[in-house]
Each structure stands twice: as structure tokens, then as C-alpha cells.
Design goal:
By secondary structure, the chain is an all-beta fold. It has no helices and four strands. The N and C termini lie far apart (59 Å).
């Protein structure tokens, strides 16, 4: 009786370093703040991203 072994290999993908930061900017009264320039800084690397809020106060940095 012959015994056969089947070796299965698979590729495992780790978590990538891609993502996004999103949000809405509001003032102290809760009103959205449109057209506000933002700077987001990664404190570990010093890398900075810029964005401007939309007319609805929304921003997205990827």
C-alpha cells in the first residue's frame, strides 16, 4: 500500500499599512465647519497629510 502525502501551501497576507482617516469637523455649537484646512501628523514618523473639509465639514485623508 502506497502512502501519498499532499503538501498544501498557501500564501498568507498580513495587514497592510494602507488606511484612511475620516471625520467631520464641528464647532462648539455643533455646526459643521466648511472649507477648513487640516494637517494630520503621524507622531511616530513625522509624516504629514493635509486636507480641507467639504461644505458639509467632512474630510478624508488616505
Amino acid at each position: 500500500m502506497a502512502v501519498f502525502f499532499l503538501f498544501v501551501t498557501c500564501t498568507v497576507f498580513g495587514q497592510g499599512n494602507l488606511g484612511a482617516i475620516t471625520g467631520t469637523v464641528q464647532d462648539s455649537s455643533g455646526a459643521v465647519v466648511p472649507d477648513l484646512p487640516l494637517t494630520i501628523t503621524n507622531v511616530e514618523t513625522g509624516v504629514k497629510w493635509t486636507a480641507t473639509t467639504s461644505s458639509a465639514g467632512y474630510y478624508r485623508v488616505a
